Amino acid sequence: MFENIKEGIVYKNLLNGEWIKSKSESTIDVHSPVNGDVIGKVQAMTKDEIDKTIENSKIAQKNWAEKPLNERAAVLHKCADLLEENISVLSDFLQKEIAKNKSSAISEVKRTASFIRFTADEAKHMEGETITGDNFPGFKKNKVSVVHRVPLGTVLAISPFNYPINLSVSKIAPALAAGNSVILKPPSQGSISALYVAELFNKAGIPKGVLNTVTGKGSEIGDYIVTHPGIDFINFTGSTEVGKHIAVIAGMVPMLMELGGKDAAIVLEDSDLRDAAKDIVAGAYIYSGQRCTAIKRVLAINDISDELAPLMLEEIKNLKVGMPEDDCEVTPLINNSAADFVQELIDDALKKGAKLLIGNKRKENLMYPTLLDNVTTDMRIAWEEPFGPVLPILRVQSVEEAIEIANKSQYGLQSSVFTKNIDYAFHVASKLEVGTVQINDKTERGPDHFPFLGVKASGMGTQGIRYSIEAMSRKKVIVLNIHEFS
Ligand code: NAP
Ligand code: G3P
Predict the structure, then answer these.
(1) For 295-349, what is each residue's pLDDT tens digit?
(2) What top-level branch of life does the organism fall under (predicted)?
(3) CATH code given to domain 263-457
(4) 171 close to ligand 2 (CB < 6 Angstrom)
(5) Residue nearest to atom 3 of ligand 2 (CA)
(6) Residue to probe by mutation, ligand 2, list 444, 448, 465, most atoms within 8 Å of CB
(7) At a CB cut-off of 8 Å and minimum separation 6, what does 35 contact?
């Protein structure tokens, strides 16, 4: 199935249906976070090759857009089937490349196949409308606006390391369904898993050039590709730092961006603390906290931390720490510098008086789950996104104070509110400046047909199957002026 995409451990790029090497003869080593081994090398593409790729994508898009929607949807269904047939290769590679534990890796692939199928079906319901002129003063019924949706052209999809398959496909599938061509720039760490998926799309019958890939370090080729005049839409998921940079330099190109988060769990005094503890721990530590939607701070009202913290500790002690193949929830972080950063935040908090309840233990890039109590707002961990398995508890005196601290963050992705009083939960939810509030559960993106969005530094635009198709298509208006007969 994958014999074309590599020579030895050197992976190529998909261009116009063929797997090719870069003329740069330069490659990027992909090291496994599990043991540091080089598990593959990907091409460092040149600017000239990026130009050719974009040119090819633009030509291929015209025919793809002409293909009847039901036929585009049928090809997407085939992609989903192939993904599921290759679940074991893909999930094994995810474990090696990004140290995702076995069951989460399998579920990433399954979820992605379901995502593609739902997208293919949803696209068939993206119907237009007709509007008659007489609704507006001074116009008559003979003016009829026929509104339908058309693709934007060539979509640049840039994905992050933590879901290299799912967060690549959640851009590719809606873009293709809407009739765009796609250029995928995968994360360097995670690129190989994404290239496997590109080959499955290729094998499923996505026409030549409709999906091309570009590999190379974001810091080297990123600015060039995002400012390229051939790109009609940028769909980016990654850090706020890079997202803001792209938004500044890219100019008048429409964009959909999902960025960082500092999701708060607000725990009210009347909540079921055992349930809350379970959800918070799962939300904070699964995949070592390397999720934009991980719970990244607990705001506990009054002294309920005295009860909540021991319950959380019980849950944390049940987490398995170790290797992805042993299906441990807490696995090595993506690299050593990510672990150094998490350590910096822990050290800063401890120096300023936070109480260590568990953790602060590290073996290279494997960080043990760490829980800090009595965290105060002068500590970096109260505000910064660790992207690692550390969770601060901030004790607050009132719900108002919890809301104030929650909203002071630069981020606005999601929040959780734990309480038995659903009416009051709605009141709190209405005050929180985030894209989504979860009542009595952890923060999370799915199910994938829900709208998913961040406000403030957490993103722009709305993702989610229907919303992504809408974002990557536009209205086309044709006005029919019907002759009136007296
Ligand atoms: P990242 O460093 O921002 O990288 C994301 C992607 O951007 C990678 O493909 C990267 O390529 C590329 N890139 C880097 N510089 C670029 C540039 N100048 N122009 C264009 N592309 C560039 O993020 P990450 O470390 O992979 O992911 C972690 C971050 O993503 C966290 O902050 C997390 O919260 C956020 N995230 C958000 C969501 C969400 O839905 N809100 C989901 C997942 C992750 P290289 O790998 O080659 O550098
Ligand atoms: O960080 C990736 C983001 O999209 C979260 O997805 O499903 O882990 O909430 P999920």
Answers:
(1) 999 999 988 999 999 999 999 999 999 999 999 999 999 999 999 999 999 999 9
(2) Bacteria
(3) 3.40.309.10
(4) no
(5) 292
(6) 444
(7) none
Residues in contact with 359: Cβ distance below 8 Å, sequence separation at least 6, in sequence order:
316, 346, 367, 368, 369, 370, 371, 389, 390
Q: Give me the residue spans of the domains in the chain.
A: 6-259+461-475, 263-457
Q: Which residues participate in catalysis according to the annotation?
A: 258
Helix (H, G, I), strand (E, B), or coil: what is residue 477? strand
Q: How many angstroms separate the CA atoms of 25 and 12, rounded?
A: 11
> What kind of architecture, by CATH, is found in domain 6-259+461-475?
3-Layer(aba) Sandwich (3.40)
The whole-chain average pLDDT of the chain stands at 97
Distance CA 195, CA 310 (A): 44
* 446 CA: nearest ligand 2 atom: 7
Question: What is the token pair recorded at 441?
Answer: 């559960």
Is residue 298 within 8 A of residue 415, CB to CB? The reply is no
- Residue 446 in contact with ligand 2 by CB distance below 6 A: yes
Ligand 2 centroid, distance to 10 Cα (angstroms): 29
